[in-house]
Design a protein that fits this description.
This protein is mostly helical. It has a domain of 88 residues.
């Protein structure tokens, strides 16, 4: 018979179990990088917007012409009157009626601050009012409006 020898292995002594060591203070949280990105993007957008608005404002102040005052208003009114074609029953309403109205308002604005333009304002106002009351103007009525426009243009030359 064969005998198999068995050796008994004695169980090793159990390792001593140590209690876990906890730190006295919790570790500081790691900085979160994801929270800064939206803030930085917003800040960059705000700065870009401020530079754009500031640049536009500065550009318009450099390029903008100062207000011309009453003489500029009267000059514009006269330019509008001089560009008007000979009015007919067909072209009296739009856009020439609107141009006549604009000339009337510009000359009135000039006369409001400078009495030298009072006659121009009265002449352009009269031409506009006589043209605006006509629904189906006759040839005589249109001729009357053209005469009043001519009077207003003469006032521009004074």
């Amino acid at each position: 018979m064969s005998s198999v020898m068995t050796t008994e292995v004695s169980p090793a002594a159990p390792a001593p179990v140590r209690a876990p060591e906890w730190p006295l203070h919790p570790p500081a949280p790691a900085p979160r990088r994801g929270d800064r990105r939206p803030f930085l993007a917003g800040l960059a957008g705000l700065l870009c917007g401020a530079f754009a608005v500031g640049g536009l404002w500065l550009g318009t102040t450099w390029l903008d012409q100062p207000a011309q005052g009453p003489s500029g208003d009267a000059t514009l009114a006269c330019e509008i009157l001089e560009r008007l074609p000979l009015l007919t029953a067909d072209n009296l309403a739009v856009p020439n009626g609107s141009r006549l109205y604009a000339a009337s308002e510009l000359s009135a604005a000039a006369a409001a601050t400078d009495q030298r333009y009072q006659r121009l304002a009265e002449a352009t106002r009269g031409a506009y009012l006589s043209s605006s009351t006509l629904d189906a103007p006759s040839a005589d009525q249109v001729q009357s409006v053209n005469q009043q426009v001519a009077v207003a243009i003469e006032e521009c030359g004074r």
